[in-house]
Specification:
Blueprint: H1 2-36, H2 42-60, H3 63-68, H4 71-97, H5 102-129, H6 136-155, H7 157-163, H8 169-192, H9 200-246, E1 257-264, E2 272-278, E3 283-291, H10 295-309, H11 319-330, E4 339-347, E5 352-358, E6 363-367, E7 370-374, E8 377-378, E9 392-395, E10 401-405, H12 420-431, H13 437-451, E11 462-469, H14 473-494
Helix pairs in contact: 1-2, 2-4, 2-9, 4-5, 4-6, 5-6, 6-7, 6-8, 8-9, 9-10, 10-11, 12-13
């Protein structure tokens, strides 16, 4: 009797150790998945649930643990054990679906759906009748069918390369070992009798080998994706640096002008582009462009804009020729994408400006407390190679403020669906009309996120250029003379 009790204790101790290991492994897998929060780690979630449920079933199988539980948990233990018996197949097939592809992935997911249907029936039957074994036969048949299918796939080299994400000899060996054990147990139970059955601990050890080899492959998959993501992030950083190098590093100084620029891409790299064509201290051309789409494809086309700009520097004083030249160069290179652009030429000696655009949001002029949109649009770049672009002539008066921008500034919407450019932009300009261009930019970039719902992210790349027309020195002298003359007249009149 003592020998039998000692043997039973050793078996229970083995179950407790194995169950604890499975539970810890399952918890760790789920914790890693929760920390990473990426699609690629779903395999760790299903693997963790699979391992955790199996560990819980081992612990519930021992009388020692059952007696140590509080009374209310002892009442729930049979229901929990019954539910786990059904749901193990579901967790296992869902974990496998993350390591397979193509038709095999569809098959494993179909098996998971069938397993959930059987589990719902079995658990419902247990609640209704107190016996949950009525559908266990179908559950076991589904498990055997899934195991045979997966064994064939991992063993046959052609199928393994086609349907398994990470073919591995370790996974092949452990799957075959577990399949032999599971098939032998089912065959010996139904055909050869209980006397030829293997001890349950052999099943558990075979499953442990199978599960941990599966975990090894799942880890390889997750780490491979992590390495790929790190590589992409490094490449994005290089792309960001390259894009930063093609944008102006300093704001040009032009007499009687104050210019400030802000560029804020939606992602690491963006599809907006701006450039200055400064001829001398009195004359400058300013281009703003917006490539359709976001990210690296848009950024590559934006970099093409920088190269194309070199060919139009000779006609910087003629906006229509600048835009026509850029369109001709880029039209055959855009591969179905389009570019909007706006070009503003400013001549501070003549106090004249010229403006033209290609499907771009209007130039905004703030003059004497009122906001005025200025439009002079032709077709977007990439539609027709020989498009023409009308030009609008402007007078540059002291106190004028001009805004060149991309639609990322005006398009953000609030909870009511109202665009920032429809209501808020003019109010921000009015409230900050005495601020410098740089201060106004800071204020605008703070107000745009406030306009959007709290959960909203930046919907598009943002480029914003503010240009203030200042009073020239000669104009200030004339104003002083006029004031002196007026004062003299007043003195004469008083005499």
């Amino acid at each position: 009797m003592e020998i039998q009790n000692l043997a039973a204790f050793r078996v229970e101790l083995a179950y407790i150790v194995l169950g604890t290991v499975f539970l810890f492994f399952g918890f760790t897998s789920c914790a890693i998945a929760a920390l990473r929060r990426r699609t690629e780690v779903r395999v760790l979630i299903w693997l963790g649930l699979w391992s955790g449920m199996y560990g819980a079933s081992l612990l519930l199988r021992t009388g020692t643990i059952d007696k140590a539980l509080p009374h209310w948990l002892q009442i729930c233990a049979p229901f929990t054990f019954n539910g786990i018996s059904y749901l193990l197949v579901v967790a296992g097939t869902l974990a496998w679906s993350e390591l397979t592809r193509g038709k095999m992935q569809l098959l494993t997911r179909a098996m998971a759906v069938a397993g959930m249907a059987i589990a719902a029936g079995g658990i419902g039957m247990y609640i209704a009748t107190g016996s949950g074994r009525g559908l266990l036969l179908y559950n076991n048949l589904l498990a055997v069918g899934a195991l045979i299918s997966l064994t064939i796939v991992v063993v046959v080299p052609g199928l393994s390369a086609r349907f398994v994400v990470f073919p591995s000899r370790i996974l092949t060996f452990s799957t075959v070992l577990f399949s032999i054990d599971a098939l032998y147990r089912n065959i010996s139970k139904w055909l050869l009798g209980p006397s030829l059955e293997l001890p349950l601990i052999v099943d558990d050890l075979a499953f442990a080998a199978f599960l941990f080899s599966f975990a090894y492959i799942a880890g390889e998959k997750v780490f491979a994706n992590e390495r790929r993501l790190l590589s992409i992030e490094r490449e994005l950083e290089i792309a960001r640096q390259i894009q930063a190098s093609i944008l102006p590093t300093v704001t040009p100084e032009v007499q009687n002008l104050q210019i400030a620029v802000q560029y804020l891409p939606m992602t690491a790299v963006g599809g907006d582009f701006y450039q200055f064509l400064q001829v001398d201290q009195h004359r400058i051309g300013i281009l703003v462009a917006d490539v359709s789409g976001h990210g690296i494809p848009a950024a590559l086309i934006a970099s093409m804009m920088n190269v194309a700009m070199q060919s139009v520097t000779s006609c910087a004083c003629t906006p229509s020729e600048v835009l026509c030249g850029l369109n001709r160069i880029l039209c055959g290179q855009l591969r179905g994408q389009f570019i909007t652009a706006a070009y503003l030429w400013l001549d501070m000696e003549a106090r004249k400006g010229l403006y033209s655009a290609a499907g771009h949001p209007p130039l905004l002029r703030w003059r004497q407390g009122a906001l005025e949109p200025i439009e002079s649009n032709g077709l977007l770049f990439g539609v027709l190679p020989d498009s023409s672009y009308p030009v609008r002539e402007l007078t540059l008066d002291p106190g004028d403020r001009y805004l060149l921008y991309t639609d990322g500034v005006v398009d953000p919407e609030n909870a009511a669906g109202e665009s920032f450019g429809d209501r808020a932009l003019e109010q921000v300009l009015y409230d900050n009309q005495t601020r410098t261009p740089a201060e106004l930019l800071d204020r605008l970039l703070k107000e745009i996120p406030r306009w959007q719902p709290t959960s909203a992210t930046q919907p598009d790349d943002i480029t914003l250029i503010v240009i203030d027309v200042m009073q020239g020195a000669s104009e200030r002298v004339e104003n002083v003379r006029w004031k002196d003359f007026s004062r003299a007249e007043n003195i004469d009149e008083s005499i």
